[in-house]
Design goal:
By secondary structure, the protein is an alpha/beta fold. It folds into two domains: 112 residues; 59 residues, no CATH class. Helices cover 51% and strands 13% of the residues. It has a five-stranded mixed β-sheet. A hairpin with a 3-residue loop joins strand 4 and strand 5. Helix 5 crosses helix 7. The termini are far apart.
């Protein structure tokens, strides 16, 4: 999905919420958050919600939106990221205070994690799956920022091990933040 696709999906979801007389506020992360925050990311496969968990109405309406538009996955809007953060990698303290509003209509408001918090999630994801390096490059525009976020990541019990250290060290090198001597 590209920017125009995501905008269209959110507008359609807003229409459906309007018809139901319901309002929702969502927090998103991942590729959709980067795209809607005007980073250089061009495409993503879904819109990852951090909160709230996808309730029955959102589940129903997002599937209806997918049916209305050709080629859209039924799970284009999902709360997999919320589960990831709840069960494995809690977001940095006070992340809610740093949210960035990226979409607002009559019945739907969407905010994104702040860039620093997206970077945190992308580094965690990279350690777990060695993915998202391009997104990390885009977000970690300085070594100071990268090191600040890495310090938060390795503060989590899950990442206090040699494997995590090695992966982060290799990432640091590929980002040009470490001499290869």
């Amino acid at each position: 999905m590209k920017r125009a696709d995501i905008d269209q999906l959110l507008e359609r979801l807003n229409e459906k919420l309007t018809q139901e007389g319901e309002k929702r506020e969502l927090v998103v992360c991942g590729g959709a958050a980067l795209i809607l925050s005007n980073y250089n990311k061009v495409e993503t496969v879904d819109v990852d919600m951090v909160s709230p968990n996808k309730d029955e109405l959102l589940q129903k309406l997002s599937k209806e939106v997918a049916k209305d538009l050709d080629g859209v996955r039924p799970d284009w809007l999902n709360s997999h990221a919320a589960t990831f953060f709840e069960n494995h990698n809690p977001l940095p303290e006070n992340w809610e205070d740093r949210l960035v509003e990226i979409f607002e209509d009559s019945h739907l408001k969407v905010s994104a994690l702040a860039p620093e918090d997206i970077l945190f999630s992308k580094i965690c994801s990279h350690i777990d799956r060695e993915m998202d390096e391009e997104d990390i490059k885009e977000l970690a525009d300085t070594q100071d920022l990268f090191e600040k976020v890495v310090e938060q990541v390795v503060g989590l019990p899950k990442y206090k091990d040699q494997v995590s250290d090695l992966i982060i060290d290799e990432l640091r090198t590929r980002l040009g933040f470490k001499d290869e001597n």
